[in-house]
Design goal:
The chain is mainly beta. It has helices at 91-102, 130-140, 196-205; strands at 10-17, 33-37, 48-52, 61-72, 77-83, 107-110, 124-127, 143-148, 153-158, 161-167, 188-192, 210-221, 224-234, 240-251. Helix content is 13%, strand content 41%. The mean pLDDT is 93.
């Protein structure tokens, strides 16, 4: 089996480096249980290795679910992330918990195709026409993660930016007063991106109105200035999207 075939499967792991043990060569301490799947072969010719997360005592063996894979790009090796049933860890949590060893490698986290790494704060926008809204957000580069056509609802994402879109209906319990265009008056969503020029140009090419053009702005934080390249655009219902690219910081003398 390839490593990816283990995603969402329950696996028995032999622990050869229990929590609290020391790496035999490099000397660092294992803050989690670390082991391997017997009778397998990974890219390095050894058994497929596993991190056990969610267990806080040394183990000799463990059976749990594979929720993710750390794929080492510069080492031709994969590490399975194994957890107890009904446990989950975000990508950021996995990175932190395995950094004691993975910080020495370039890697990426592979998830099941239907996995969503949920943000803690996800705005839900009430829209007048879901089809028009999706056309706008797809122009920017947002991807549909899932939808409920019967409810005219969609969940979309662009990197770590997430929105829920819900077409207005007469029985919508979440709106406590009539909405008047522009719906986003009084709030703007700052969305940090790397490809700000590409997004700006795509919007211009598709004749979406830019509320203010791209400019550099520097904002004081204590004794330094934080730089952003940014522009503002309204979506079809008037929600304000402030796209921003980090320009670093400048110390104030």
């Amino acid at each position: 089996m390839n490593s990816i075939d283990y995603l969402n499967k329950f696996i028995k792991v032999i622990i050869d480096r229990p929590m609290g043990s020391k790496h035999p060569l490099h000397g660092f301490i294992y803050p989690v249980n670390y082991g391997y799947v017997p009778n397998t072969v990974s890219g390095d010719g050894e058994e497929i290795d596993c991190y056990i997360l969610g267990i806080y005592e040394p183990l000799e063996s463990f059976s749990g679910k594979c929720i993710a894979i750390i794929h080492r790009i510069n080492d031709n090796d994969d590490k399975l992330i194994i957890v107890p049933e009904n446990y989950n860890f975000t990508d950021d949590e996995i990175i932190v918990l395995t950094a004691f060893q993975e910080r020495f490698f370039e890697s990426k986290i592979i998830r099941p195709i239907d996995y969503i790494n949920w943000n803690k704060n996800i705005p839900e926008l009430s829209v007048t026409n879901l089809e028009n809204s999706l056309k706008f957000y797809e122009t920017i580069g947002f991807k549909m993660k899932y939808n409920r056509p019967e409810n005219k609802f969609a969940f979309i994402s662009l990197g770590k930016i997430q929105f829920m879109l819900q077409e207005l209906s007469n029985n919508d319990k979440w709106n406590i007063a009539p909405l008047i265009y522009p719906f986003g008056n009084g709030i703007n969503f700052q969305l940090e991106v790397n490809n700000i020029d590409k997004i700006y140009n795509k919007l211009k090419q598709n004749d979406y109105k830019i509320s203010f053009e791209i400019e550099e702005n520097w904002y004081r934080q204590d004794n330094k200035l934080l730089g952003n390249k940014e522009f503002l655009v309204q979506d079809p219902d008037g929600y304000l999207l402030r796209f921003s690219k980090d320009l670093g910081e400048i110390s104030l003398k």
